[in-house]
Amino acid sequence: xxxxxxxxxxxxxxxxxxxxxxxxxxxxxxxxxxxxxxxxxxxxxxxxxxxxxxxxxxxxxxxxxxxxxxxxxxxxxxxxxxxxxxxxxxxxxxxxxxxxxxxxxxxxxxxxxxxxxxxxxxxxxxxxxxxxxxxxxxxxxxxxxxxxxxxxxxxxxxxxxxxxxxxxxxxxxxxxxxxxxxxxxxxxxxxxxxxxxxxxxxxxxxxxxxxxxxxxxxxxxxxxxxxxxxxxxxxxxxxxxxxxxxxxxxxxxxxxxxxxxxxxxxxxxxxxxxxxxxxxxxxxxxxxxxxxxxxxxxxxxxxxxxxxxxxxxxxxxxxxxxxxxxxxxxxxxxxxxxxxxxxxxxxxxxxxxxxxxxxxxxxxxxxxxxxxxxxxxxxxxxxxxxxxxxxxxxxxxxxxxxxxxxxxxxxxxxxxxxxxxxxxxxxxxxxxxxxxxxxxxxxxxxxxxxxxxxxxxxxxxxxxxxxxxxxxxxxxxxxxxxxxxxxxxxxxxxxxxxxxxxxxxxxxxxxxxxxxxxxxxxxxxxxxxxxxxxxxxxxxxxxxxxxxxxxxxxxxxxxxxxxxxxxxxxxxxxxxxxxxxxxxxxxxxxxxxxxxxxxxxxxxxxxxxxxxxxxxxxxxxxxxxxxxxxxxxxxxxxxxxxxxxxxxxxxxxxxxxxxxxxxxxxxxxxxxxxxxxxxxxxxxxxxxxxxxxxxxxxxxxxxxxxxxxxxxxx
Length: 714
Prior knowledge:
With 714 residues, the protein is an alpha+beta fold. Strands 14, 15, 18, 19, 20, 21 and 22 form a seven-stranded antiparallel beta sheet that branches. Strands 1-26-25-3-2 form a five-stranded antiparallel beta sheet, with helices on one face. The protein is elongated, with a radius of gyration of 42 Å. The two termini are 74 Å apart.
């Protein structure tokens, strides 16, 4: 390779390097990066970050959840491409500052007094005038006037064919140039601070320090050392859950696919968690009474952590993030809904599980949540629907901080007491979630227990209303449900109803009524099979699975009674069914050693709701409902612990950004030149004004300068 070829390659390499630097330091490239960062930040704000993957599958579906997950949209701020864009933005802005700062500093010092006379005629703001003074005297006078007005001035004398001329050069508003440097430096500082306080340092330890993301489960104390970060970790942000009466010194850092454990130089003991509520049921105050146990000195420091009022110790901030259940104990009472089921009690801990079995079917009871306060809206609860498969507490039922009732009408708020949430998972792993209230609430003039369920987490809870008896308990309904499954009690209820409804001596009528009542009650109880055509569905519909209830009675009428007689027959059959069910209720009370219920309005309301609840209980997906009988509430506080050395850098960057934007927007850089050429009368003056923005203020200022310096009337 010849020397000329080598020189040519070096020259081409230098050109390519210069082109790359030019691209990186260009304003368009920086704006493009800022645009991408803004779009990513919007995505990170709209889409909840670092949620369990199943939540995204339920929200977006399996396909889009996979697509969004592969693009790291669920962890935008720690995604490799987001950190790379931030790094490029830092490099681009730094190169831009490095390229332009020397020019800005040189321009900041220069007065440009060597400008030619002919160049002054090209400025938009220009004027000429005759002065009776000599050029030197006029130059000193004009210079003093500009100095008095806050301008920086420099005088220059020039030799011309007509004699000695003078140039007055002045400038004002040079802080506008500093605004450019401050604003661009602010972007660099904010990005650097964000990188320092972000996930970059933690990622670096997994890349270069042998740390691994933990993907398993179990006790925190059993996690190996390769999944733990030391107390000297320069930056981190994690969550610390502490139960009342306990202490913790290990924070959990969420990572894609798992977690890392961060050891703290102290432990946090939770003495008491305090939560106060608004009338709406929304939390008003989170506060934690804690004691910080310093490992190095053994010092115990009491403190109080509130939302927006963190506690700092050894450079680590302790924020009040939220609260959770700390392992409350609950006792549940099973209310049977199917034939053969028996009542029982079960105890467990929130977050735990219990195995249930009826011999053939194995189920897992998972204790999900306990809420001791549920504030509901009962505005306008008169009337309303009676189909409990469609009617929740009032209109649309949504679970938000325990509130199952949401409305846009005038609010009547009332605390309805505790509730428990649990899941029943079958042997195949399929689970249905239940949400049951401990105490009855009054709806449509009847006190009812609310038993909610939903098949998927994104669905609202649907509630079954179970009427409360005269003792505000569910025992009356449970006895009636059990009696409905007893053939002997059904037969006795039919006999009593027939005897009471038919005059003595009308044996044939009593037998016919008894036969109709027996069939109606058997259909309602699901003890009699429907005709094949009744279960077929008809009109191309799929076969119906009718276990009992009013739906089975309705299907029987549709196939057994002519259409023109169906309405009258249904009224008679429903009247017979209500009568036999009332007798069945009295029999169940008699069997339990209780006095019969009077035939009053309260009993009528109970029976009306009981018939609907019994009918809907056949569609309840579990053989029993588990109601909250007793509980021991244990609170836990969730703290966010953070060591953020980049916070000060970000604050400095924000301050510089404010100053820089203010300087660029509100400080106008202006330059004034006055050329004074000698003539017979004294001096010929040429005035020019340069400004970086054309505004009405610039026009006004130029008129003022003409009047003061050239003595030209406006």
